[in-house]
Amino acid sequence: MKITFNLQGAGPANNGGTSTLFNSANILHGMGHEVQIVAEVDNEFTWFLLDGPTYIKTNGFVPDYPDARAIIATGAHTVQHTLNAPASKGSKFWWVRAHETWSMDEDALIANYRNHRIELLVNSICLRHLIFKKSKRRVEIIRPGIDLDKFYLIQERDWSSKTEFVIGGLYNTKPRKRFDWVIEVFEACKARGLNVKLHLYGTYDEPNHTGHELYLKTPTQEQLNTFYNGVDFWIAPTKSEGLHIPPQEAMLCECLVIGAKEPLSGMADYLLDKGGGYTGFTMEYWSEAIDLIEGLIGNPGQIREIVKRGRDWILKMGNRQTNIEGLVKVLNKGEHPNNVARRLFALRRRGFAIENSRHRA
To answer: How confident is the model at residue 18 (pLDDT cuts 50, 70, 90)?
Structure first.
């Protein structure tokens, strides 16, 4: 199957979102599919190479690239380009991976969710609930998966004998990431007399005045696995994420994760009481993490149970191959573009108000 990932209006960069898409493209190519990634800019992603998929720099016009079976909008600003594509470019999908209010007005986002000229996929339960609430559309959850074999416990943790604990976090300067919460948690733990250190990583230059002992800039997967194995409590305060990969990687290394309790946080997919016990914890404000950490330090048996359960839950969510196989099934079921007008007419006859104007997309 020929598949196009549409990055026009966005473009690749060294970040988690691009990494997810490029990994997905490589997996699809390995499964025998012909994959192309189109954008109006040069490929500035350097974390790893595209292994088979074709990167096409366009001049901004959709017909510049080959026909396909499916074309996938990869972000809010790629939806219009996808809707403008001729039918020969493939059935139209939008893989919604976050509610992108930082890059587009919320009314415009909701109008796009309601546009039945494009099929929607999401990567988390919270986004599925949001889209149903705003548009009454039922959508498939397709998670990208992570490298389950690359993140693992190097040596069994001895929680009972630990006297020093490491708090870890992702350094990111975007306001919605709320990195300041990581520093607040660390400093408050020290003020309470807890023996803690701070380890950080990120893609930015090393920060100043954070009190950290260790900082890794753009680590390799091997370095990152070792890093997570040296962290006890992973603090993930980001306000709005479709799924959020670093906490999952940390849980595979049996870090105890404390994430943000937010309605649009994909961490709710794996940081809840699943009926068989907690896999991690959430906080509405950073100060809640202090009591959690202090209480857990005094109960090593509870920590051990939670981190084992957390790792098992991430494993159950599946690796990249398993999840991308699900994507292929959805793309294969995609409606042929020539039938879209017929489907819209049928929905209107049933009384649905269908958004179908190009300028609203």
So the answer is: very high
pLDDT of residue 59: 84
Quick one: 38 and 178 in the same domain?
no
With contact defined as beta carbons under 8 Å apart, do 75 and 17 qualify? yes
Residue 181 pLDDT: 97
Check: CB of residue 328 under 8 Å from CB of residue 79: no
Task: Tell me phi and psi for residue 161, to 5 degrees.
Answer: -100, 0
Shared domain for 230 and 348, answered yes or no, is: no
Write down the pTM of the prediction.
0.89
Judged by DSSP in three states, 258 sits in strand
pLDDT value for 357: 39
Sheet order of strands, 54-57 included:
54-57, 34-39, 2-6, 70-73, 91-96, 119-122, 140-141
Which phi and psi angles does 259 have, rounded to 5°? -110, 175
User: Which pair of structure tokens corresponds to residue 286?
Assistant: 């950073």
Q: What domain range is 276 assigned to?
A: 159-316
Distance of CA 253 to the CA centre of its chain: 18
Phi/psi zone of residue 237: left (φ > 0), alpha (ψ -120 to 50 degrees), beta?
alpha
Number of domains comprising the chain: 2
**How far apart, in whole angstroms, are the C-alpha atoms of residue 334 and residue 95?**
13
3-state secondary structure of 214: strand
pLDDT digits (tens, 9 = 90+) for 228-272: 999 999 999 998 888 899 999 999 999 999 999 998 889 999 998
